[in-house]
């Protein structure tokens, strides 16, 4: 897939303790509409299959619906929306968003209960709103992919989170390793679990999804931390995302991550997955080290998972 990806706002109506863009600490938005519009115009007609919108929380922009109209008028085939789904709890609003071209909703689900998710988001009621939002857009015929970021507050209930998402009708479930930047970096020791600690719960969650016949996607995990489920990691070679992040353009998201956000150790060179594995988020390696990571012998096999 070839897609544009736009960071539409710095601000959010939740204050997640591991927000990678540091939304809880942003005093004002830095994203100008004219920069977004120029990016959309410059890339129109260039074969992009979708526009992926994210933030912060994209839906809280006052001109969000106008931006959806602009995307449609420029001829982009469809829109993906990464969202906490809180505003989508209003059916009238959810219907408007679907009618304006959003076909895939990537909804943050970080807890199996309101107690867990509301504690992570620091927004009472956010769990119930997300659940209602998922139900609304599913009723409207849209596709839902949930995304669950693994952190200290939720890793023991990952299997239950997967069950909840599938019970709500999610078409795909995504499990993401914690990206230790932004607010997550500020709160590093509060929110960041060790891979050795989370592994049994991540593997159980994966097994739960596969057993139920679900479409499973995983992102950000070093390959050696998810043995037996490597094929479900995102294949970034087949998914090219050109990203507008604030005023900076990443021509290729995966190359940017390799160059600036992730690192490898010497031992990685002897791993069967060295060519496709991005390594470890650099802040994690700096603070916790490499003892948990062990190269996988043999030859990498299996088709990696595409992004829909």
UniProtKB/TrEMBL annotation:
Residues 1-215 form the Radical SAM core domain. Its cofactor is [4Fe-4S] cluster. Keywords: 4Fe-4S, Iron, Iron-sulfur, Metal-binding, S-adenosyl-L-methionine. It comes from the Bacteria. It holds the Pfam family Radical_SAM. GO terms for molecular function: 4 iron, 4 sulfur cluster binding; catalytic activity; metal ion binding. SUPFAM superfamilies: Radical SAM enzymes. This is Radical SAM core domain-containing protein. It comes from Micromonospora sonchi.
